[in-house]
Structure formats: C-alpha cells, structure tokens
Amino acid sequence: MIGIFQGSMTAKERVLRTFNHEKADRVPVNYLANPAIHKRVAAALGVPADKDAVDDALGVDFKELMPRYTGRPLFSPREGRRVHPLTGAVQRWVPNQDGGYWDHCDFPLAEADDETIANWPVPDPDDFDYDELLDRCKLYRHKAVHFGHPGVSDVMNNTGMIRGMENIYMDL
C-alpha cells in the first residue's frame, strides 16, 4: 500500500490558504484519471475503486460537483456511440490492452452553418436539480467544493468536442 501525507489542515483550510497566498501544510491535491488508470491507482492504494475512496486515500482536497440535469433529452442516442446528454458530443469505444476508452468522434457541428450552430440545443438552467446539489455540498463540506469540470469553462475543448478542433482554430 502507498502511504500519502495527509497533512494537519482540513482540505478546505488548505485550499483557502493557498488561494489567499498563505502558507499551508502541503500543496492542495486534485485527482482525475481515465477508468483503466483509476482501477490501477485504487489497486495500488488497496482501496475500493469508487471515486471517494481513492480521493480519500490520496488526500484529495477538491470535490467536483455538478447539478443533476432533470430536463427533457436534448439529443437522440446513437447505436455504437455514446452521446453527451448536455452538449451532444459523440464518442466511440476504442479498445486497447487495458480494455479501452471512449474517444470523441463524428463531430456533429463539423460542417454546420451559422444557423445550425445558432439552433443547437442547449440545456435550460432551470432544468437542473439545485436542491440536490446543496445536499451533496453538505456531504462534502470538509472538501474544497467546486462546480463543473475541466470542460465546462474551457471553450476550446468543449466546443472542439462538437465542432472538431480544426474548425475551432479556423473559427477564431
């Protein structure tokens, strides 16, 4: 089993001090991994492969939360593909020696004109369960909770997932 220095501060204290440019007991830690790597990390740590168990074993200070979408489906399922319910980004399964991973493909707005882009479905902010999100915030009050994930505010990657990176750079 791998030993990780947990520190003497709570995760929230550590992150707030760091954001305020104050001395903390250690550098704040976050963790994201694809499923195959996540399983191997959990096994190396000797913990179950659920996200919270691995985060706790690694001393992760952050907790990523998103409100649950409760609105109508915006995009239709596609056989042999995974379609992101909020953005319409399409993924295909790519097998490898560890099993495989989902990779972006079939960029739905790759050939789109301005009208198609303007009419692309987007979720209504009222179609999310914010009360349930508040309950989850309370559950993780000891962590530095943040909302979203690396793709939410990242215009290039999120847009590239539905338009294609080549088009995004040309659209600039």
Automatic annotation (TrEMBL):
<protein>
    <submittedName>
        <fullName>Uncharacterized protein</fullName>
    </submittedName>
</protein>
<dbReference type="InterPro" id="IPR038071">
    <property type="entry name" value="UROD/MetE-like_sf"/>
</dbReference>
